[in-house]
Amino acid sequence: MTKLEIIVASTRPGRVGLPVAKWFEGEAKTHGGFDEVEIVDLAEVNLPFFNEAKHPRLREYEHQHTKDWSAKVAEADAFAFVMPEYNHGFNAELKNALDYLHHEWLYKAAGLVSYGGVAAGTRATQMIKPVLAVLRMTTVAEAVSIPFVQQFLEDGVIVPNDVMTTAVKAMLDELVRVAETLKPLRKDS
Q: Domain with 159 in it: what CATH number?
């Protein structure tokens, strides 16, 4: 069994991240490379600003919200981070969610689905890559970058163009390959 979790990074009212994630979820299910595909919405996870007394590497979590978050992340083999760009970077809620844990992220595949204006969220994707690397996640080179995202939104649903559809398939192909390759490394972590 191989599981993909689609992490919706934006938590603000009026966000586009959830429609993007739902579109991506449909594409991932149609692709068929993962046995299970699930959207994990950080707005619903609702983690407070990091409040554990001990370092995440110790796995000595004191709060139930951390224990729940740990279990959710641990069950995945790969992630697709659906993320906006805020001031040339990725948003604080996503950074906070990453910082809560350590072992649970190790040796898992990561794909980046970004959206925004002219830059399509690509500056945010460049900023998150070193964070994912220190968590020993493998970010695939293939990505989905959606410029001027509002043009693809009709009645709350993303209507993709051919470039987006092609990019999703390429990224999912690689996520499946990398997730399977990394599985043996997680047995010792």
A: 3.40.50.360
Of all helices (H) and strands (E), which one includes residue 5? strand 3-8
Q: Got the DSSP string for 166-186?
A: HHHHHHHHHHHHHHHHHHHHH
Question: Model confidence over 132-173: pLDDT tens digits?
Answer: 999 999 999 999 999 999 999 999 999 999 999 999 999 999
What is the total count of domains within the chain? Answer: 1
What is the gyration radius of the CA atoms in the chain, in angstroms?
A: 16
* List of residues 6+ apart from 48 with CB closer than 8 A: 65
30: tokens are 């149609």
Which domain covers residue 73, as residue numbers? Answer: 3-186
Give the CA angle between residues 87, 159, 4 to the nearest 5°. 70
